[in-house]
Structure formats: structure tokens, C-alpha cells
Amino acid sequence: MKLPPLALAYHGIGSVPLRDDPHRLFASPAALHRHVARLRSFGYRMVTARELALRARGGDGEGHAALTFDDGLADGLAALLGRLGVPATLFATTGWLGAAHPDTPHGRVADRRELRALHAAGVEIGAHTVNHPDLTRLDFADCLAELVESRRELETIIDAPVESLAYPYGAADARVVAAADTVGYRWAWRVAGAGSWDAPRELPRQTMLNRCSTLGLWLKRTDRYEAVVGRPLIRAARQARLRALGHRRPHPRPVEPARSRRAA
User: Fold this and answer.
1) What per-residue confidence (pLDDT) applies to 225?
2) Which residue range is the domain that position 103 belongs to?
3) Which of 60, 73, 165, 259 pairs as cysteine with 188 (C-beta 3.0–4.6 A)?
4) Single pTM value for the model
5) Which residues contact 162 (CB under 8 A, 6 or more apart)?
6) For residue 262, is pLDDT > 60?
7) Domain count, the chain
8) What percent of the chain has pLDDT over 90?
9) Average pLDDT over residues 210-225
10) Averaged over 34-45, what is the pLDDT?
């Protein structure tokens, strides 16, 4: 069976119960272990987002997968990745560095020193804007400012080029893609399966939320997850399961619906 290129989009790593994680931002260390083990059992080789983008562009992405982490929630990330023996990419929101995450009391965003240490440990650092806005709602000048300033600060911190961008909420339209191109990002990433491996500034990632199962991972590998869970009966059963696990409201963060145009 072919293994299409696969990028997974996490936020924080921590054992946070669903009742305390309304945005479903955290995967437990044990869950991440299971996900990596399952990817390896499929036959995937783990790479950074940069290498995956390069391979996909050259037609050599098959059989490669990348772990990515948005916002900059990095507590214990380097040590966990070291134990797993996998590379990863962290997309940092520069306006939040060293502060509590605005959407959860359970995680702290990495500070400048920690970002440098992650970079030195081999974690790829990418941009996730300054203030985490929905870029599609900004005018072009403000969108440019978010993209320019976040990249500039990150390059100052790690003293290395920052070539990758993750759009907040995965939200991008033609103007936002044009802005990313203007600023000089070589690659930019969506979520929820939206995007195409043929479009370097609209690359697809699969969203990984608290309590994502290995079955869900199998569906995401084959780019069928969003279509399956969007069916009314499946959606109702899924919400009932989450409520039974202690999750009292649906994920409120906007997530771009899948419009995948994967290369064959």
C-alpha cells in the first residue's frame, strides 16, 4: 500500500483531562508514543516539516511523516522527542513567548532561551505569526506585518533562517498565500487536511486533538478523517463519546474544513 506524505498538527503535550481542555489542545505523552509507534508500523520514516515539504516537492514524499506543534507549547517536548527518537517542527507565536497560553492554564509557551535550546537540539523552528490572528480577516498590510515581524524575531532568537509558516487556525486565502510568498516563506501549512502537496504555501496537515485515537490516525493517513467524522450519525456518536469522557462542549477554535487536493 502506498504511504502518502503525512504531516500531523499537535499543540501541547500533557496529560490534561478533556474536562479541563475545552479546546482539545493537548495530547498525552502516552498518546504521542502510540501515534509514533503506529506511524512506524505503517512504514513511515519520521522527518521534519521542512524535509517533508522538500521531498513532496521533489515527488519523493511517499513514506515520510512529520510531527508539528503549533503555538510554542514546549514543556518537556525536547526530552520526549529524544526518547522517541523522532525529529519535529515547532511553530511559535512570538507575541506569546514566555507567557501563559491564552486558551489554557495548563501550558506555558516557550521563552527565547527555550526556543534556542530546542533549535540546538534539532527541532525545526517555524513561524505562527505574532498575535495568532485569523489572517484572512486582516487587511494585506496587517497580514504582512504579522508574517514579517514573527519571522524577523524568530531568526534573531535562533540565529538561523526561518522558512516555514503555519497559518493560525489553518486559515488562508489567496491574499494570505500571496503575503506568505511576498515575505519569503518557502512553505506554509494548513490544518484539517486542507491544501495540496502541489502547493508549497498551502501544504496539508492533519489536526491531532486531545483523545485522537489510532483509528483516527489511520483515517487521517488516508485523508478520509474529515469526510467520515462529518457524517451526521458519526458526528453525533463522536460527541456523545467525548461527553462521556468529560468534554462538555465542542472544540470552539475555528478549523478550516478539508478541501484536500493531494497529489497522486
Assistant:
1) 60
2) 6-244
3) 165
4) 0.86
5) 125, 126, 127, 151, 154, 155
6) no
7) 1
8) 73
9) 78
10) 95
